[in-house]
Fold this sequence. Notes:
By secondary structure, this protein is α+β, with helices and mostly antiparallel strands. Helices cover 25% and strands 32% of the residues. The strands form four sheets. Strands 6-7-8-3-9-10 form a six-stranded mixed β-sheet, sandwiched between helices. The protein has a five-stranded antiparallel β-sheet with strand order 13-12-11-14-20. A five-stranded antiparallel β-sheet has the order 15-19-16-17-18, with no helix packed on it. It is elongated, with a radius of gyration of 25 Å. The model has no long low-confidence stretch (mean pLDDT 91).
Amino acid sequence: MARVLLENIRKVYDNGVVAVQGASFEVHDGEFVVLVGPSGCGKSTMLRMIAGLEEVSGGTLRIGDRVVNDVPPKDRDIAMVFQNYALYPHMTVFDNMAFGLKLRKFPKKEIEELVNGAAETLGVTDILDRKPKQLSGGQRQRVAVGRAIVRKPQVFLFDEPLSNLDAKLRVQMRTEISKLHQKLGATMIYVTHDQVEAMTMGDRIVVLKDGHIQQIDSPLSLYNHPVNKFVAGFIGSPAMNFVSGRVTQSAGLRFESSDGAVSVRLADAHAALLADHLDKDVILGVRPEDIYVAGQEGSVGEPVGSAVPDVIEPMGNEIVFYATAGETNLVARVAPTVSPEVGRAVTLHFDVDKLHFFDEESEETL
């Protein structure tokens, strides 16, 4: 296995579109790194540059100790798993998994050992004689992963490999890929637009927006300590709530929403950090699980305002409701013991120790 190092990597297409702008980060040997962001953020382009399927417009790309900017894909010692599986329809599962080894003229006995070993790891031993059209989506994806495993490459690259699967199978396959990483100890780079996949699979996550890296950190650090409003809103489901307002002085520092519907007394830690933002515009961020309904277990402190539920989603282990507080839309996740009703106002409490604040103009975390 090997590390991957990107140093100020850029990608500019012939029409002048800049897809990746000065990306720099290192994937350590044996690490599982996820590239995540909305469509058009440059994550797949970055992966394709690592694979050699896109030319690097600027910067230096290293795999192991080699600079590979001009090295063709076949000589980079990488294996890629695609979104559409890319299996040969006329070949059996065994032949699909063995194809790359046959091209490299591996001995027949070694090919059989490698393919059978990968098939056992992935639980596809009983379908080695079938063709892709006889397989389910999950089985095809396992075969595509198996084809990559038998190569024993320095780096595994995954380009949104689960996006064609149904919800239940996606959960199962992401667990299997995580287990596979632990078993192989392989260097893996995984691209997805699904932040739940990113949070549950990655050792570290690279968050991208418009070709720029926004933040690189562990899943929990991204969740608890986002560097800006974009990362805060992208990581977490349902997304963080944002309320525009000002810091005011009223028996201590408070946050007052622009429409006056939300008023929050700041915790001591936030008051100290926001003291120099008195009477300045800021954005308050509060995650849905940090909003409580009056009387709910865990609700503490004074009420911050009232809201009228518009949509209620009973999930069994929790209730998610969408509500309106003045001109602000809020999403809350509350215990199933709470019974909000559509159209009937509820009194809200925030966990003031877990609030986030962002600059109104730069949207950077304060």
